[in-house]
User: Which sequence fits this backbone?
């Protein structure tokens, strides 16, 4: 396999009940790297630890180091954010590596990046720094969109941009490897790219669990949901616009039902929008669901998966539904050229009418729906295994 290594994961940015792409990556890497005989210290705070336990991350080779934040999180997000940055700095100043430890900053947020950076500069000969950079912040003019959008959430995008302005120079100069999730992101670090020190990490799904579930289904599942969405309720993901899209679908198909799997900061906005559009009978909110039978049953009862993200560097959420043979509809984002070359109907970014038409086209044409679904499923089964992704990365960063 690989030579055994000692890892320090810094995941202080993990927060909430949902699961970001970066969170999913570090959890699935940890699950497999520990199983393969590597030792991992995972540094996080209470909310991050709770996320890992919901995902059932446990192994004898994993030690969780939970930072005590005291009462500070009670004073709101900003205080908690700053406190986690300071906690990260303290970790970077007190940890002592063994022989050659690998430190992995699981996100580009400062609470994850600074401890890895400090260990690198303190112990250059004893530490290898692997930096996660899974999405470049949008420009201040565009905000969270790549096309037309009424609300671009520029303030949220500004804080993300500002954080990366501080983080990027440190990664560019001191990181040994940078993990990115598409070819466009590789260009953000040209020196690393020239040296072969960037690793493109495409998404993955738990194929073993999905295939096992499908083998246990003894009868055909009734199709209850005309479409399903899975993902964070975040400004990037287009969840508010999805309600507008579904209202347009309902005008053509009054009984159409959309299932929405996920949670996040826009949940209350989504609930309010559903009520204002009088779509309570047409949209069912499931909240966040862990990988397993409850979620998988919804996929088997759905016809189409919708992925209306306006700004995305990849997107693993739809791939899980596509593994069940569901065709996807999404905006034509640049990153989807490598992520979803098959199985997805793509429409101009921000065009809600075209998005609606694409959904209706699939719902009204079973032959096309099954054809695209089969193509997408074949693509996912062939190349979207977590074992494969985790092995690709560890072979590269331990070489």
Assistant:
């Amino acid at each position: 396999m690989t030579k055994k290594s000692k890892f320090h994961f810094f995941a202080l940015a993990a927060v909430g009940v949902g699961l970001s792409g970066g969170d999913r990556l570090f959890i699935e890497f940890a699950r497999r790297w520990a199983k393969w005989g590597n030792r991992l210290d995972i540094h996080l705070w209470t909310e991050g630890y709770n996320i890992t336990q919901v995902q059932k991350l446990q192994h004898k080779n994993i030690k969780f180091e939970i930072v005590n934040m005291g009462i500070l999180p009670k004073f709101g997000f900003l205080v908690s954010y700053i406190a986690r940055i300071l906690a990260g700095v303290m970790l970077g100043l007190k940890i002592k590596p063994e022989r050659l430890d690998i430190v992995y900053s699981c996100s580009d947020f400062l609470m994850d990046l600074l401890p890895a950076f400090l260990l690198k500069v303190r112990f250059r000969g004893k530490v290898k720094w692997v930096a996660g950079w899974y999405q470049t912040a949008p420009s201040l003019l565009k905000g969270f969109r790549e096309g037309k959008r009424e609300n671009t959430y520029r303030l949220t995008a500004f804080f993300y941009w500002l954080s990366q302005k501080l983080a990027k120079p440190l990664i560019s100069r001191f990181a040994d490897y940078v993990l990115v999730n598409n070819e466009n992101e590789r260009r953000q670090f040209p020196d690393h790219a020239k040296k072969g020190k960037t690793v493109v990490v495409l998404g993955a799904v738990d194929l073993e669990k999905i295939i096992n579930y499908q083998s246990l289904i003894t009868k055909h599942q009734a199709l209850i949901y005309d479409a399903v969405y899975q993902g964070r309720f975040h400004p990037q993901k287009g969840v508010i616009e999805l309600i507008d899209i579904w209202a347009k679908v309902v005008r053509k198909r009054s009984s159409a039902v959309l299932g929405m799997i996920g949670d996040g900061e826009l949940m209350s906005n989504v609930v309010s929008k559903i009520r204002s559009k009088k779509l309570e009978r047409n949209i069912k909110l499931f909240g966040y669901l862990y990988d397993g039978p409850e979620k998988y049953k919804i996929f088997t009862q759905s016809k189409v998966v919708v992925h209306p993200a306006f700004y995305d560097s990849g997107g693993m959420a739809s791939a899980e539904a596509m593994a069940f043979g569901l065709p996807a509809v999404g905006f034509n984002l640049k990153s989807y050229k490598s992520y979803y070359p098959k199985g997805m109907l793509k429409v101009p970014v921000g065009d809600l009418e075209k998005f609606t038409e694409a959904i209706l086209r699939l719902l009204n044409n079973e032959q096309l729906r099954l054809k695209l679904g089969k193509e997408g499923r074949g693509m996912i089964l062939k190349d979207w295994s977590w074992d494969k992704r985790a092995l690709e990365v560890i072979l590269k960063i331990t070489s």
User: Anything to note?
Assistant: The domain at 207-383 is CATH 3.40.50.2000 (Rossmann fold). The first strand starts at residue 6 and ends at 10. The chain has two domains: 6-204+385-397, 207-383. The mean pLDDT is 89.
